[in-house]
Design brief:
Blueprint: H1 2-28, H2 31-47, H3 58-76, H4 81-92, H5 102-111, H6 115-126, H7 131-138, H8 142-166
């Protein structure tokens, strides 16, 4: 029985570890911190594996744990997510537009999003979660996910257009 649990958890970890680490990196902006956060997230998931409600998505459940892990991390360090957000926006503005290729311009545009919109973009396109899974992760209605994602993508398109017009 324990062997099955270990195999199941190991397979789940292999399927999700890259997505979780990328999600953690977006919050911490440090590879070392992202690794620590991902490790803590998986420890929490491991300890609570038997509490998962089979009616939902295990991946959405994991990202809810990841989000809580980030919140605890910020709180423990006395850091405010808004400080990180300002830092990302400042760095996104550093490169001069004529030197940017489309990928760099896209990352700049994403960096200028609010933390709420950046998170929704990452969960949808980075972690490849469905709208339903994102709603469960963030504990919001699916309609809220759709509207936030719509506004985030609109902002990205506008930023990309500004960069193209500057060149």
């Amino acid at each position: 029985m324990a062997r099955t649990f270990q195999t199941e958890f190991d397979q789940f970890w292999r399927q999700t570890c890259g997505k979780v680490r990328a999600y953690m990196f977006c919050a911490s902006n440090s590879a070392s911190d992202a690794d620590d956060l991902a490790q803590e997230c998986y420890l929490r998931a491991f300890r609570n594996w038997d509490r998962f409600d089979e009616r939902g998505s295990r991946q959405a459940w994991l990202f809810a744990i990841a989000r809580n892990t980030q919140t605890d991390w910020f709180r423990k360090r006395g850091r405010d997510a808004r400080v990180l957000e300002r830092s990302l926006v400042e760095r996104a503005s550093e490169a001069s537009p004529p030197e940017l290729d489309d990928a760099e311009a896209l990352w700049r545009a994403i960096g200028r999003l609010t933390a709420e919109h950046r998170e929704i973009v990452h969960l949808r396109f980075g972690a490849d979660l469905s709208y339903d899974e994102i709603a469960r992760t963030l504990n919001v209605p699916v309609g809220t996910v759709r509207s936030r994602l719509h506004r985030a993508l609109k902002a990205i398109r506008e930023q990309m257009e500004e960069v193209r017009n500057e060149t």
